[in-house]
C-alpha cells in the first residue's frame, strides 16, 4: 500500500534570496516529481511540519523544482534557515492547475501580487514554452516596495521578450523607481486587451485577488474566464483532512485554481 | 442464512468462538450509565441497551495515528485484527461516511484501509435508545440492516438469550462454523420484531418531540440561508467553549491534522484528530481566518454535515446518535440547532 502522506526525500540544492522576506529554494527530489503548472506540493521540514507551496519553476523540468517561499510563520521561518545540502520532504503534486488547453488561442492577462508571482512564474514558463502557442502574455505585477520585488532577473528577461508585455507597480515607490506607483489593479488601465479574446489570471494576497477580480469583471471578463488561485488552510492535500473546505469544494483537490464562475455564489470567498 | 439462537449460558463461548484470533473490544456497562467499549474478554462483555460512549471512528482512525518515520521504514505498518462487539446502527452508518471519506476519491488513506479491513463487526439492536437519540430522523432505525458481520438481538436484554444474524460472507462463515446453534424460532423472531418496533417508536417520538420536522427541509434552509447572522446561531455559538468535544465524540467527524515531530532522534509523522471548532482550524499564514468567530465555526459544523457531505458523498454527516449533545460542555443540543434552522 502506498502512503499518500509520505514525502519524497529531497535535497536543497540552492537558496536564492529574492527579497528580505522571500527566498527561492531549488530542490532535487530523489524521484522526479511531475507536475502541471498551478498544482501545489506539500513540503516537509522533517520533525517540524509541512506547508503547501506552488512550484515556481517550469513544469517541463522534473528532476528539479523551485519553490519560492515567504517567511510567514512557524514552518516557513524554519524553512528560511535551511541551507544548501539540507534535507526536506516533498509530496504531491496535488490539485488542479491552470487548464492551458482552455487558454488556447487567447491572450493572457495576468495579475500578480507579492509572493503570488511564484506560481505565475511557472505559468509563464509553461505559456511561452510551446512556440507561438500563446501570442500575447500581459503580466501586471505589483509589490509593496521596490525592495520586495522578486525574480528581478526574470522580470528583466520578460521585459525583453516579444511575447510578454510587463507592467509593474509598487504600493510605495523609492528613489529611482521608474514604473507605476499604486496598487496592481491600476496597471490594468494601461493595458489594451479584448476581454472576449483573453483570459484573466489572478494570484496574490486575498485583498488583491478580490480587487483584481472586480477589475476584470468591470472590464467585461466572463466569470468563467477569470482564474483564481485560492489559499486556504491545508493539511493533507488529498481531500481527507477537511481543513480546506470552501463551499462545496476542497481547495486541495478541486483547486487551488478555480474559475470565478465556480466560486462566485459561495459566501465570503475572500476572507 | 436464518438467524440463529444463542442462549444466555453459551453467549461467552459463542463470542469466544467467533472472535478467535482477534483483539476483542466490547461493551462494559455499569448500572444506569451508557456502555463503554473496552478491551475485554468474552465472559466480561455486558451489552448495553444502546450505543456506547466511544465512537467507532476511534478504532479505524485513532486519535493519534502513528504514520512512522518521515522518509523510510515500512510503508504502512500492520495493525491488529479487532473484533468490536456492540456497535449500533448509528455507528455503522457513520462507518459508511468514513469509508467514503477515506477510501473514496482518487486517493485512499491506507492507514484507515488497513484498520477497516481488519475489523470484525459484531453489532447489536438498541433495545432502550438513549434520550438524546434521533437516528430515525435520518431515515435509519435503531437496529442494523447492513454493514455488519454478525448482529446480535438481545431477547429481553439477554435474559432469554440472543438472536444472531450474519450480514457478510465473513459473518456467514463464522456463524456456520459454530456447532449446535438452533435456528431462531418464530416466537423469537416475533419478539425481536416487537422489540425493534418499540425501540423505533421511542426514537420517532423523541425526534417528534424535538420538533425537527424533516431533514431535507432543514438542509434546504441551511443551503439557502445567506442570513448567516441570524440571532439563533450566535445564541448557540456563545455557549461554545471551544473544547472540540462535539467533533471528537462524533462518529462521522473525520477531520485531522498531519503533524510532524522529532521523537528519540527520529523524524516522525502523525495524523491527529482535529476540531473545526478550534479557532486556528481555518487560519492561514499572516493571521487571516475565514472562520475567526465561534458563530462561523458552529455554522461550519452544520454546513459540513448537512450540506457539504450530502452533496459530495450523498450521505448526512450526522447519524443521530446524540453523542455531541451529551458531550458538549456548553450544553449545545444539536437538535435545538437543527430546529432553529428549520424555523429560520
Ligand atoms: C495551495 C497553496 C499554495 C501556496 N503556495 C505558496 C508559495 O508558493 N509560496 C509561499 O510563500 N506561500 C505559499 N502558500 C502559503 C503557505 O502555505 C503558508 O505561508 C504557510 O503554510 C505558512 O506556514 P507557517 O507554519 O510558516 O505559518 P503559520 O502562520 O505559523 O501557520 C500556518 C498554518 O499553521 C496553522 N497553525 C499555526 N499555529 C497553530 C496552532 N497553534 N494550532 C493549530 N494550527 C496552527 C495555521 O492554522 C495554518 O494552517 C501557499 C498556500 C496554499 C494553500
Ligand atoms: S462540544 Fe460544545 S463547547 Fe465543545 S467545541 Fe463543541 S460546541 Fe463548543
Ligand atoms: S488539505 Fe486536507 S482536505 Fe484539503
Structural commentary:
- The complex is a heterodimer of chains A (271) and B (344).
- Chain A has 271 residues and is an alpha/beta fold.
- Chain A has two domains: 8-94, Elongation Factor Tu (Ef-tu), domain 3; 100-229, Nucleotide-binding domain of ferredoxin-NADP reductase (FNR) module (Rossmann fold, 3-Layer(aba) Sandwich), CATH 3.40.50.
- Chain A is 21% helix and 31% strand.
- Chain A has helices spanning 74-79, 100-103, 117-129, 152-160, 185-188, 206-219, 251-254, 260-263, and strands at 8-19, 22-29, 40-45, 49-53, 65-70, 87-94, 107-113, 137-143, 164-170, 180-181, 198-203, 226-229, 245-246, 249-250, 257-259.
- In chain A, strands 10-9-8-7-11-12-15 form a seven-stranded mixed beta sheet, with helices on both faces. In chain A, strands 4-3-6-1-2-5 form a six-stranded antiparallel beta sheet.
- Chain B has an eight-stranded mixed beta sheet with strand order 3-2-5-6-7-8-1-9, with helices on both faces.
- Chain B starts with a strand and ends with a helix.
- Chain B is built from twelve helices and eleven strands.
- The mean pLDDT of chain B is 95.
- Chain B has helices spanning 11-19, 57-60, 89-103, 110-117, 169-176, 186-209, 215-224, 231-237, 245-249, 294-313, 323-327, 334-343, and strands spanning 4-6, 23-28, 36-39, 64-69, 82-87, 119-124, 150-154, 162-166, 182-183, 256-263, 266-273.
- Chain B has two domains: 4-209, no CATH class; 218-343, no CATH class.
- Chain B has 344 residues and is an alpha/beta fold.
- Chain B is 36% helix and 17% strand.
- Chain A binds chain B through residues 1-9, 44-51, 70, 72-73, 76, 89, 205-206, 231-233, 235-236, 238-243, 245, 248, 253, 267-268, 271, and chain B through 67, 70-71, 75-76, 101-102, 105-111, 113-114, 226, 228, 254-262, 266-269, 271, 274, 276, 281-286, 288-290, 300, 304, 307-308, 311-312.
- The complex binds flavin-adenine dinucleotide, iron/sulfur cluster and FE2/S2 (inorganic) cluster.
- The site of iron/sulfur cluster has 13 residues of chain B, from helix 9.
